[in-house]
Amino acid sequence: MKKREEILKKHQYSIWFNEKENVWYSYLPDTSKPHNRRKIKRKSKCDLEDMIYEYYTSCREDENEQSKASLSLESLFYEFMKHKVNEVNSGTVKRMMADWNRFYKPDKEFIATPLKSLTKINIDDFFNSILGTHHLKKKAFYNMCGILKQTLEYAVDAEYIEKNPYRVKVNKKKFASSGKKSSEKEVFQAEEKELFIHEMERRLENNPSNTAPLAILLDFELGTRKGEILAISKSDILDDRIHIHRQLVEEFDTSNLDSIKSKGFYVVDYTKSEDGDRWLPLTNRAKEIIRRVEIINKEYGYCYKDFLFVKDGTCISPDAVDAQIKRGCEYIGIPVKTMHKIRKTYASTLLHNGVNISIVKDMLGHADESTTIKHYIYNIENSRETDNKVLNALEEEICQKSDQSDQKIISFTKLKRAKNPEKSTLSAL
Known about the structure:
- By secondary structure, the protein is mainly α.
- It is built from 18 helices and ten strands.
- It has helices at 2-10, 45-70, 73-84, 90-104, 108-111, 120-134, 138-157, 183-186, 190-206, 212-222, 226-229, 284-300, 318-332, 339-352, 357-364, 369-376, 383-406, 421-428, and strands at 16-18, 23-29, 37-42, 237-238, 241-244, 247-253, 261-268, 278-281, 310-311, 314-315.
- The strands form four sheets. Strands 1-2-3 form a three-stranded antiparallel β-sheet, with helices on one face. The chain has a three-stranded antiparallel β-sheet with strand order 4-5-8, with no helix packed on it. It has a two-stranded antiparallel ribbon with strand order 6-7.
């Protein structure tokens, strides 16, 4: 009723009653008639007002349909993202906007396509051009595709379109190789690890109040994610074990999608996945590193709640740790590696030393062993050590065969072939 009253109030023509004809009159806009209007009449005023209301309501629906038809893919995406910010964390929003700006925004023609005109062929052409230009690996490509998929699913839910034109039909030969990277790039090999540990100790000597190098060294003993190790508190330690159940995450201001800015790092009471909540055993070296951190915090008055790695009244940032690793690798002359590659080193070391893959998976907080095997297990020995191990294994096999040949050979009497009973019977006859 309120909507009806608003429409009738905005009606630009008067409503009058003709006593002679005993009917009610008014006008409605009509560009095909003189003066761009047409006369309407009804026996009751209520019926006439109904006719006026239905006309303007129909006009609004037509305008909405035209608006939907002209809505571009770019406008739809931004509308979808304003809806999405209420469903996912700000880090996810930032990553989606980064992919939009990198892959979609440069193609002005594609993102300007009206939603109603978007076809499967348009999408095929766009995805194939992306593969041809950027040579993405399969995972990165499908992550990029996901933006369009979700946007068009939103369009269906918002009733802008009835049928979703999304599909992925590309030349899969264009995918960049997704083969496993070399061990030299993905883990700290034995000699590198030793040099790197000495470098972290040297850096700590030069700056005794900075516990970031100790966080790095502790990660060689725990193999946690970067955010997990920086969120460890003293209360997480029980005897010879430590409970990993928090992480440090970065939050962003997403009020302006074209200019997303960091709001800083915060500790949250959950890990990347449910399987990430786990207990890890503490080596003697890990316990010594923790003791050293506590001494430094006490000496310099560092304190923030119950957390271990702190400075200036808050947790040490991941950026501070990354800087230490980068400069350390450069100083000792090895390829620059990351905290995540320390995690891979930890996993590879466990398996190399005989720990069952199922246990390695649990220590990393993975849901299944396939993730661990495919992405975290590498050879931690250098090429010389690897060659020697292979040669020793082959030579040992030769020695075993030689020993077997020297053993006494037992011969057996050759058995005569049995006669065919049918032939024997015939011969006797």
